[in-house]
Amino acid sequence: MRPRARLDELRLAFMLLSRLPMGTLARAPALSDCVWAYPLVGAVVGGGTGLVFALAARLGLPPLAGALLALGTSALLTGAMHEDGLADLADGFGGGATRAAKLEIMRDSRIGSYGVLALILALGMKAACLAALPPAGAWLSLAGLGALSRAALPMVMLALPSARESGLGQAAGGALRRGPALAGLVLGLLLAGLCALPHLGAVVLAMALVSAGMGALARQQIGGFTGDVLGAVQNLAELAGFCVLVGRF
């Protein structure tokens, strides 16, 4: 085990999945080698989101206002990349008649009606669920959800081929080895356990079903995964986790 190599992979994972400053890498690792660290990025982003929610509650803001502020913070920390992926996927799958048309729409940076509706529904449901959680321990719950939802991404990349011959998704998944992907899954489960995520088994099951369903849909619609598919998987898997937490409290 090479500590410097693992540290570089961790920094690259933060560069890919967040907007947190990580400096520059003298020699960047392969994108496929850093997938094990995705859950760590999710834990940091989720924990920060939960702390903002708790702070808003301490300042006397209504729960829904605090939840919206926290989700806005999450979008800032990630550059809203997962939300962008969900919107692009909704536009492509909803508006394209053929595989090529769907991929072309997903590449378009403009957002359409399907994308707007998907974002409103996803963010609205997340805000409503977060507002129903106890603020004091929310940062731990959100850290666990963030870790698990990003641990799902390498599993989708392992199960599906890349739908494009180029792009970030192809670069990350084209040479993906089973070892880093499984390490990411184990790390996500460990982090969720350390965060004492309530109803962990039910949350994992819900996220697995959503991820598998999205993977099957992506295979049927475009023949594989793209970066947008991964963003949508993260977003919807996390939403499924939110729903389990609220439904079981």
List its traits.
mainly alpha; 11 helices; 249 residues; 0% strand; globular
Percent strand: under 5%
Low-confidence stretches: none
Strand element count: 0
What percent of the residues sit in helical stretches (DSSP H or I)?
over 70%
In DSSP terms, counting alpha (H) and pi (I) runs of 4 or more, how many helices?
Answer: 11
Residue-averaged pLDDT: 93
Major sheet characteristics = none
Order of helices and strands: HHHHHHHHHHH
- Which structural class do you get from the secondary structure elements? mainly alpha
In short:
The protein has 249 residues and is mainly α.
Topology, please?
Elements: H1 3-17, H2 38-58, H3 63-78, H4 81-95, H5 99-107, H6 113-131, H7 138-159, H8 168-173, H9 178-194, H10 200-222, H11 227-248
Helix pairs in contact: 1-2, 2-3, 2-7, 2-9, 3-6, 4-5, 4-6, 4-11, 6-11, 7-9, 7-10, 7-11, 10-11
